[in-house]
Design goal:
Layout: H1 6-9, H2 13-22, H3 29-32, E1 39-42, E2 45-50, H4 53-64, H5 72-86, H6 93-105, H7 112-120, H8 124-129, H9 132-135, H10 140-149, H11 156-167, H12 176-198
Helix pairs in contact: 2-4, 5-6, 6-7, 6-12, 10-11
Length: about 200
């Protein structure tokens, strides 16, 4: 049985990996220009599209094949650029869920707002697809304690109230280490395959 991974189906995989290497620790805007959100319209079509959406998804898939803590700046950049497509009416749930987990795996508290936004800042599809464990980072009570400690920061009180309302008293969340194992075993490969299928990189 052939092992189907992004390395086997992403076009120009080696070139994408070169871009990834250039962006470790610090974003290289020149290298990322061909992947940046770029709205485009066509004659007789009222819709607005993103001219670089496909290339950015391929870059994300190439990165998902092998990523580490040094790739956090690029993961955050990909989340930001993909998020702009939501404003055009795109369903960005799968790419958001994949990239959000990649950031979550190596997160620190500075990533909390980004991860929260991945679940709560877009639409119902994104809220459904992004696991609550990802949005809460180090855990429900840990997140609420952190927000309370930094209540003077804009939006922190609002976030805490939204989290309490969403989670209620009965929601059971997996411990962080258990969730990472679950996601890598059960969801990560499926998200890769679904995105690859959606963009015609693999057959059903």
């Amino acid at each position: 049985m052939i092992d189907v991974t992004p390395k086997t189906y992403v076009p120009n995989y080696a070139q994408y990996r070169q871009v990834i290497e250039r962006c470790r620790q610090q974003i290289d805007e020149v290298a990322l220009a061909p992947f940046a959100f770029s709205p485009i319209t066509y004659p007789n079509d009222e819709n607005v599209y993103d001219d670089h959406n496909r290339e950015r998804i391929e870059l994300l898939l190439a990165l998902s094949d092998d990523f580490c803590e040094a790739d956090k700046p690029l993961i955050r950049w990909l989340l930001r650029e993909n998020g702009k497509c939501f404003e055009l009416g795109f369903d960005i749930s799968k790419e958001t869920a994949l990239a959000a987990f990649m950031l979550y795996k190596y997160m620190d508290w500075n990533d909390m707002l980004v991860l929260y936004a991945c679940k709560f800042a877009y639409g119902s599809a994104e809220q459904y697809m992004v696991d609550t464990e990802i949005a809460l980072g180090f855990g429900l009570q840990e997140t609420l304690d952190y927000l309370a400690k930094h209540a003077d920061v804009p939006h922190h009180t609002e976030m805490a109230n939204a989290i309490r309302a969403y989670c209620g008293q009965e929601m059971k969340l997996k411990p962080r280490a258990q969730f990472i194992d679950y996601f890598e075993t059960r969801r990560f490969g499926y998200l890769q395959d679904d995105l690859a299928f959606d963009y015609g990189l693999i057959d059903e």
